[in-house]
Amino acid sequence: TGLVAEVGQVREIQHGSAGARLRIACTFKELVLGESIAVNGCCLTVTSILSDGFTCDASQETVDKTTTGALRVSDGVHLERAMQVAELDYIASSRAAQTAIAENYVGLPV
Description:
The chain is an alpha+beta fold. It is built from 3 helices and 6 strands; from the N terminus they run βββββαβαα. A 6-stranded antiparallel β-barrel has the order 1-2-5-4-3-6. A hairpin with a 2-residue loop joins strand 3 and strand 4 (42-50). Helix 2 packs across helix 3.
């Protein structure tokens, strides 16, 4: 969505030949396995749900070409969840929301 919902914290990083597994602490409720969460703007998939957050895997390509490779344990990370159906419904029915998107994201005059 481009809207940071929370600042999480990197609790653990496991590096391997295929990339890295990150354990991120956050207060998100109702996480779903397979859900996409942007971590510092890089979309990663939830691979396990923990009592204090989640884990996600980053491929070696992702580690090499994004800021994910520079993360260290205890770093704060911006977290964004995917847009929910209710948010899409609001945008579809709200002239104010449509105007804001057109002006701020697309740069179109309305």
